Amino acid sequence: MGTLTHPALAHPSRDQIQPLHLIASGLESEGPVVLCSKNGNFNDLASLAECMRASMLLPGIAGPVVRVPNVGEPMCDALLYEQVPYRSALVGGATHGLVLRSRPDGIGTLAKQSVLERMMLRRFWRRKNRLPAIHGMMKQQRHRIR
Q1: Which residues, listed in sequence order, are joined to residue 26 by a DSSP beta bridge?
Q2: Residue 2 pLDDT class (50, 70, 90 cuts)
Q3: DSSP for 43-106?
Q4: DSSP H/E element including 22
Q5: Is 26 helix (H, G, I), strand (E, B) or coil?
Q6: Among 92, 86, 87, 69, which Cα is nearest to 18's?
Q7: CB–CB of 127/119 below 8 Å?
Q8: Where in the chain are the domains?
């Protein structure tokens, strides 16, 4: 069996032509964070896997927040600050984008939170990570309104 590698890592010239960008939520900056090899966030499979983990970590469900060495702040899934990362793509110079929506126009995204969900939010954001501002945002579902 061969070693598993990301094409960008196996062929650095490809990464210069079409670099991989991952979006995560910065929990101290309270905004989206772009992770890519150009920024020095990953240069091997282990660091790429850690960046991918940061970009898809569901808060309170899939483990503790992630700290990528070159970023310096805790991170989790992009759902908090940029659910559809087209804004980061535009800022990064993208000229074309494709967004696949899972809901038609007019369908609300707000839902009544269960007691268990409220307890989990409080435990994860306030007590464990000491991030009361993010707890308030999640409690008021402002991440869904965006």
Answers
A1: 31, 75
A2: very low
A3: SSHHHHHHHHHHHH--TTTSSS-EE-TTT-SEEEEGGGT-SSTHHHHHHTT-S------SS-TT
A4: strand 21-26
A5: strand
A6: 92
A7: no
A8: 7-145
pTM of the model: 0.68
Residues sharing a CB contact under 8 Å with residue 30, sequence separation 6 or more, in sequence order: 81, 133, 134
Q: Which residue, 98, 106, 82, is CA-closest to 33? A: 82
120 neighbors 113 (Cβ within 8 angstroms): no
Length of the chain in terms of residues written? 146
Element spanning 117, H or E: helix 115-121
**Model pLDDT for residues 3-25, shown as the tens digit of each residue:** 445 554 555 666 666 778 889 99
